[in-house]
Amino acid sequence: MIAGAWLCLCAPLAGALAITGAGERISRRNAGWLSTASVFVAFGGAVWSFLGLRSHGSEHGVISTAWTWLESGKFHVGLSVLVDPLSTMMMLIVSGVGGLIVLYSIGYMDGDDEERRYFAYMSLFVFSMLLLVQGGNLLLLLAGWGLVGLSSYLLIGFWHERPSAVAAAKKAFVMNAIGDATMALAFFVLIAHSNSLEFTTSFATAGHLSSTTVNLVALGLLGGAAAKSAQIPLHTWLPDAMEGPTPVSALIHAATMVTAGVYLIARTHPIFEQARTVELVAAGMGALTLLVAGLIALVQVDIKRVIAYSTMSQIGYMFLGAGVGTYAGGMFHLMTHAFFKALLFMAAGLVIHALSGEQDIRKMRGIGTLMPWTRWAFLAGALALVGLPPFSGFFSKDAIIAAALHDHWYGVVLAVAALGGAFLTGLYTFRLYFIVFGHGQVSDAIDGSHHGEGPKTMLVPVGILAVLAVVGGWIQLSPWWHPVTSWLSPVAATLGVAEPPKSQEVLASVLAVALGLAGVALAYALYGQNRLAVPRLPGVQRALEHKLYFDEAYDALFFRPAAALAGVLRRDFEEPIVLASGPDLGEGALEAGAGVRRLQTGLLRTYVFFLGTGMAVLAIVFLAVR
Amino acid sequence: MLQGPGIVWYLGIAAFLFAIGALGVLIRRNPLIVLLSLEIMLNGGNLALIAFARHAGNGAGQIFALAVMAVAASEVCVGLGLVVALHRRRLAMDVDQLSELRG
Amino acid sequence: MTVSSFTTVLICLPLAGALAIWILPLSRYATGALALLVSLVEVGVWIEQAARFDFQRSGLQFAQHRTWISDLHVSYHVGEYAFSLWLVGLTVVAMAACVGYGFWVGRERPRAYFGLMLFLTGATVGVFVAQDLLLFYAFFEAMLIPLYVLIGVWGGAGRLGATIKLLIYTMAGSLLMLAALIVYGLKVGTFDLVAGPTSPSRWLFLGFMLAFVIKAPLFPFHGWLPDAYREAPPEVTAILSGVIAKAGTYGMLRIAIAKFPEPAHYYRTLILALAAAALVYGSILAFRAPDFRGVVAYSSMAQSGLIALGLFSGTTLGYDGAILQMVAHGLISVSLFLLAGTVERRTTTGQFALLGGMAKGRPALATLLLTTGILSLAVPGSASFAGEFLILAGSYQRAWWWAVIGAVAIVLAAMYMLRLISAVLHEARGSTVHDEALDLRTGELALIVPLVGVLLALSVWPDAISHHSFAGDMPTAVVQEQFK
């Protein structure tokens, strides 16, 4: 079991190192296969751990330490992996979905100049993500946290000749660095109080802290979670991150990395439960994000950006769930979302691949008739996303809405927001579906440049994920059938307030499905076969197209002042005062030297005269002091 | 203990020698004479050292005098070498005109 | 060879090498090869010494003590503590890489050049192992002589100005230190660092500290830094920032904090403020610097501030982190400046406006620059992150706001380092980047890959340094007892 966990962690790293080290000695295609194999080996390791944990019955998990990573005084952190229900669930999702996406990449990236670099980065990412979920203490979690940010930076900026890609990559990294910094600050507090970053010790410590302190710790963690999971107000990097290759968006910006925030909340829930206010803030943050992102998704015309905003919105649901206390609900939605969102991205990738990189949905009309398989796969993903039964999203999303509903007036507000989000989801998802895959005249341009549906390496992963998007939710139908919740209960037991009665579950499901269907119907009316005129609200539309001006505001609030401050410091302080000090001192010394120089006549008499005078002065001083 | 003239006499003569030497260094321009005058100054110093040594009754001053003689000898060597070099280059034998090293 | 003579060997071997190079009429190639050989043997000697070092035992090891000037109680006293061992290791490894770089690019007047480089090695090792104040001072000053010449002769166009600035700044600092150490030595009756007692004198503390903050440098004593770092040959800049700056922070720990505990306590807030200012100010200026070396230069200043923050936090975590960070940042900045050198050799410039797009077709350069840059911005999981984390966790225990300032600097570091990486490697090709500019050659790889390799190894096991710098679990106690 432990061996499986280490295998799972090390295989992708070995793959990345092998591809980097081999350089041009390995063919591009083989680099892809090597990377895929390394991730599937990791999946094997994850399955091994999962089966081991089931038969072993050690519910609270096992920690295995390789060696001491960092030690100072009483503070001590091991390089250790943790195998418990939560981490094995994440391991399975990350390596399983990851393996499929890497396999898909072989076809998608075929012919790119630097495939080897791409696959090395992909393996590095999977390693980092596994380190994040397997890390046996908070510091290793932070290490994985930072490394996924790094791989995300590398992959977003993979096509580094494009200035927009480089800018997006930098933005993603810096936003995430803000999150890393707040998490590190939270850890400093824990270290100061308990000299430890072990999970158990830290959670025990959180119980003894004053409420202010524990709130600060939880806020620090929440900052990290929000930055990584692109929740308002740290969300602006995610849409830009779509500059990366599509499989990257599927893997990092849909299925795994961006959901790490939810994992963090579930993992550190004992701390958040001590700081219940902060936890509810997280839920509110999720509710706000799911609404705002859903609204913005309505007007985007880039296929990947629409899906990216949808991702933000769905992570909003997960935050909402984890925030109100149903950690298993959040994790379950994380899992189904990984299936259907990866599917949507990969189906979109098939379209983009077929159209040689075109991402504007207005230029895709009619592609569905040429790509029937892709259309069916996309439809499966879309239905799962909207949450219609029996697709997977239905089972996970509705449980969250039901759980939110339970928690007095605040819960009602959250649930209403979530239900509004369900309507929006139906609307924007099927707007996308009808525009791209709806019936319509295939334009000649598309017909000419169309590349076919793609190689088997791309279709097989899409097919598998399509099946998972349909059936993936069937493993839990709360409240009657709940293996996921009971599997996770030893490490992330659902809070009492988040366990809704059956009636609420039914009510929430009915409302959510009805609103989702209403959204689909409206989308059909507006964008389907018989188009109605889309109501025009130019002001609203412009605001949404500008993504509610977050980028502009941050630019004006933070970046410009910082850059201006740097400019002012450089121009008015560093250059005239600090840097000029050296030459000034030098010139001063030279001028003083020029003065003294006149005394140096070259005449022996002068020298003797000064000698004599000096001696006389010294003699007088000597006598006087005496 | 001491026979002969008192220490004052010795010091007087030493001061006299030193003054003659100093005057020579100050007013003569010929480098050869300047060197000679320097020697006289040094010997004035030596005389004072030896006189003090006798007066104090130990040999430390004598040792100093020996060291001064060694220094004087080496200094004369260098100095005379310079004078010869000046002569060879047919430069003026006038220290006032040899002011190349002024600042 | 007795065990204790290892330290002396480490000092004298490069000095003897320098002498040999100056005296023997060797060819250009043989000179460089000999210098490289000597510096590699030096690394070997250090490895052997590290293998024999007893990390469990406190106190001085590999010590040698000979009376030098008995009337003044000055002696030739050298030896190593665990943390000095790491700094000596940093020195010999960095110097070997830089000598190798000089050999690779074929510096003019090789005999003078390599002789000075070896002399510099010996002097710098001497600073880290000297256990007598006068000896320390002698090495501290001896370090500067080759630096002046190396910058003044082999530097860029503005080298004279840079040299004069460096000279004036460092002389001002070290003369005050000389005065302080003479007063200290005469007052307590010995110049021995191990035997000497602590002193409560604030003036003496300030005298020492001034020399160290100029060397490190901390804000606002960094006026010499940008010019010197820009004008020196890249490998000399690498030494300046990677090794010589660490002599300043080492001095803070070994002398200012250990020998003057009360003044260090009294001025703690002031110095922490200077350190934090260096950290933030350096980071902000690095963000606007227009060229490769400018960014790394200001980031070095920021890192010096960080290290000083750790040292003067006076906590266990702070001390351990500072030592780890000194080594990690030393290796990082040596690699970065050598990479700057390779970039400048290919494009004749370090200006960002003229660079760009170098990643295309140059995988080795891109990989190494990217890796080093990322290590430098302390991505979580790296050795520099471990150091930074310990330092900030330690300074948090002093007062929360130091850690918050440090956290801001983490974000700024990401901003300026990514800017550097993109400006050199990414986007459209710069006007000075031609197809003839090749990828890194084998010789260059042989210099930089080992450095990055050591850094990665340290990232896997930072505890190698953080737990092996002070004997026992409590650096605070060890420092309080002046490392005895």
Could you characterize what this model shows?
- The complex is a heterotrimer of chains A (626), B (103) and C (484).
- Chain A contains 26 helices and two strands.
- Chain A has 626 residues and is mainly alpha-helical.
- In chain A, strands 1-2 form a two-stranded antiparallel ribbon.
- Chain A is globular and about 115 Å long.
- Chain B is an all-alpha fold and 103 residues long.
- In chain B, α1 packs antiparallel against α2 and α2 packs antiparallel against α3.
- Chain B is elongated, with a radius of gyration of 17 Å.
- The mean pLDDT of chain B is 87.
- Chain C is mainly α and 484 residues long.
- Chain C is 73% helix and 3% strand.
- Chain C is built from 20 helices and two strands.
- Chain C has a two-stranded antiparallel sheet with strand order 1-2.
- In chain C, α8 packs antiparallel against α10.
- Chain C starts with 5 loop residues before the first helix and ends with a helix.
- The interface between A and C is large, with 64 and 64 residues.
Considering DSSP H and I runs of 4 or more, what fraction of the residues of chain A is helical? over 70%
Count of distinct strands of chain C: 2
Q: Give the N-to-C terminal Cα separation of chain C.
A: 26 Å
Q: What's the overall geometry of chain C? A: globular
Largest interface: A-C, 64 and 64 residues
Element order, helices and strands of chain C?
Answer: HHEEHHHHHHHHHHHHHHHHHH
Residue share in helices of chain C?
over 70%
Strand order of the largest sheet of chain C: 1-2
* Average pLDDT score of chain C: 90
Spatial arrangement of strands, main beta sheet of chain A: 1-2
